[in-house]
Amino acid sequence: SVERYLNELTVPAKADKWEGPDHAVEVLGLLVDMHHLRVRVTAKKVQALVARIDQFLSSAQVGGLVPRGELASLVGKLQFYAPFVQGVQSYLVDLYKSRDALRAGSHLQPHEAKAWAPHVKVTFSAAAARALTTIRSMLLDRPYRHFYETHSGGCALWGEGEMGSHSFMEEHARTLDGADVEVEGQ
Asked: Which residue from 64, 121, 160, 168 has the least number of CB within 10 angstroms?
């Protein structure tokens, strides 16, 4: 069912949030195509994320201080959509590092509640700026991520690169992360 697939893809969606026919459901800014077994971020959500990235980049200065909460909020949004845009997750690391780069001498630890106060600022690194610019481009490409039904009845997103390809799955009857897949003739 659609709901089972959404849950397997870690999209916390209830039927009252769905838009569209049963074979293509739009939920939380994602278009889940059940006929072709693929998912992507909707054009409307891409526009909103790109606008948010542009707004942040226009107000932030590389090497300067930015409000930690603003950066963390943007990173949180990108983190939710990252699994559905191939390659984005690898760029989040630089954003996490910048989010947790508290000012020297602040005596705060990144995990402390006080470190999330509105006045707390972090250093916005050049690596974080490059990551946002790259993620912005990736979002605009709006590629689909395919998913598949596993042998155990669940589903998962295809991996990246050769080991996430059809040929890898056909040869090994499993995905990169070890999930069994049904292969014709085996």
From this structure: 64
CA-to-CA distance for 154 and 24, rounded, in angstroms?
A: 18
Q: Which two tokens stand for residue 169?
A: 């799955």
Q: Which residues does 15 contact at the CB level (< 8 Å), separation at least 6?
A: 3
For residue 5, the one-letter residue type is Y
The gap between the terminal CA atoms of the chain, to the nearest Å, is 26
User: Hey, what's the torsion of the CAs at 72, 177, 179, 14, to 10 degrees?
Assistant: 10
Of residues 59, 83, 84, 80, the one with CA closest to residue 71? 59
Q: Characterize the bridge pairing of strands 30-33 and 155-157.
A: unpaired
pLDDT for 169: 52
Give me the residue label for tokens 């700026």.
129
Position 157: which residue type?
A: L
Mean pLDDT estimate for the chain: 78
| Cβ–Cβ under 8 Å, residues 129 and 62 | yes
Half-sphere exposure (Cβ direction) of 67: Cα atoms closer than 13 Å: 9
Q: What phi, psi does 56 have (nearest 5°)?
A: -65, -50
Lowest average pLDDT, out of 64-68, 115-119, 167-171, goes to 167-171
The per-residue pLDDT for 76 is: 94
Residues 37-74: b if buried by 16+ CB within 10 A, e if exposed: bbbbbbeebbeebeebbeebbeebeeeeebbbbbbbeb
Contacts of 14 (CB under 8 A, 6+ apart): none
